[in-house]
Amino acid sequence: MSSTETSRTAPPDIRAGRLDAGQYPRNFCDAHPPLTLAQARIEADRCYYCFEAPCQVACPTGIDVPSFIQRIADNNIRGSAHAILSANPLGGMCARVCPTEVLCEEACVRNTHEDKPVEIGQLQRYATDAYFADPGAPMFTRAAATGRTVAVVGAGPAGLACAHGLARLGHAVVVFDANAKPGGLNEYGLATYKTVDNFAQREVEWLLSIGGIDIRNKTVLGRDVTLEQLTRDYDAVFLGMGLAGVNTIGIPEPEAAGVRNAVEFIAELRQAKDYAQVPVGRRVVVIGGGMTAVDAAVQSRKLGADEVSIVYRRGEDAMSASAHERDWARTNGVQVRHWATPKEILAQDGHVTGVRFARTRLQAGKLVETGEDFTVPADMVLKAIGQSLVAQPLGAMVELQGGRIVTDADGATSHARIWAGGDCRCGGLDLTVEAVEHGKRAALAMHKVLST
């Protein structure tokens, strides 16, 4: 049995400038405006300053949450920022993108009393934003030079956190990154409305201000430098290259305009000087169920797409996008559809016209097709079904499992001089804040080895 969502097939319609020029700044402004001074103090006063606070336990980087909130209440903003950044050197970005609703705020004891946690993420942003606006004297300084040099592959959250930790301990660090700018996911992979005013680069500039860190952009592992070279030329190596490969949707893809990887679409928008110049379809289908799918779908709507659907093969509870993100998508006019898997991308005259989906259900715990299908017309199809490690440059130098690098709790790999962290590392939550913790812990572990 088959059904089609519309009675006729409209001609393909992908173009830029769908909105009035004045609408783009409004659509891509800060999605969650920061707290004012008065709001921050009122919110800080709601904190119980718990001993052995569950919010701190829930934070992957172990930020002393009661301490930084108490300092906001005392108007000690620099002290508050110090408590945050000493535990998480990318605490400003994490305040914007960390799923606090399922980490520190979910653990807040206020939930028991009034079903509303302290807005920890917003308070963290308030403190770090205020500090970055007027940093004053350096917050952290380097230890005496050790004479050791470490190579870091990848200038994303894990690599930058590792580099900062090593620099603080007196080591010289060279960071190799494939992109034109440092920042990794923070610069290229997040929705524009989550990080406005070039914040990702401003945070990187602050992080690098400690000194001792050399960033080499447009340098690709396996093309411009090899892992063998790095282990030979440096005292230790940290791998934090993330997941540069994009998973396929498992069906043939026609040679047709309008089919794109969602991560590339998001990166294009993040780097655009004029959002009005970014083309988008009138009808967009996003295949996937994670944060990338939500970011791509919502931004398609904000660029002026009339109809945007996220289609996911399982039920809502199985989506990796948080409930907050799913609600955000719906609030912005995105239709979220479940229990459907792509079977065919339809194209005509060299351009995509829609996607045929098979309905699915669980049978004895296994996902199966029901025998029914339906077609969703589309001018643009964005694939957001996950990314994978490009393992070829690693050769046989480190052990892999499930397509990612095997490490111990401190990031040590099977090679005595190589550590790894972030999304390229096996296991974990694939969160920015966790990647920072990986880099921080690896830096301490590397320092211990380099100091013996």
Range of strand content: 15-25%
The CATH top-level class label of the largest domain:
Alpha Beta
The biggest beta sheet is recorded as: 5 strands, parallel
As a percent range, the share of helical residues equals 25-40%
Structural class: alpha/beta
Calculate the terminal CA-CA distance, rounded to whole Å. Answer: 69 Å
Physical arrangement of strands within the biggest beta sheet:
5-4-3-6-20
Shape: globular
CATH fold name of the largest domain, please? FAD/NAD(P)-binding domain
DSSP strand count: 20
Q: Which architecture name of the largest domain does CATH use?
A: 3-Layer(bba) Sandwich
Q: Determine the mean pLDDT.
A: 95
Instruction: State the helix count.
Output: 17
The domain count comes to 3
> Which superfamily, in CATH terms, is the homologous superfamily of the largest domain?
FAD/NAD(P)-binding domain
Low-confidence segments, ≥5 residues, pLDDT <50? none
Radius of gyration based on Cα positions: 23 Å
What distinguishing features does this structure have?
452 residues, alpha/beta, FAD/NAD(P)-binding domain, Fumarate Reductase Iron-sulfur Protein, Chain B, domain 2, 3 domains, 5-stranded parallel sheet, globular
Task: Give an overview of the whole structure.
The chain is an alpha/beta fold. 33% of the residues lie in helices and 20% in strands. The chain is built from 17 helices and 20 strands. It has a 5-stranded parallel β-sheet, with helices on one face. A 5-stranded parallel β-sheet has the order 8-16-10-11-12. The longest helix is centred in the last third of the chain and has 19 residues, at 432-450. The chain starts with a strand and ends with a helix. The relative contact order is 0.15. The model has no long low-confidence stretch (mean pLDDT 95).
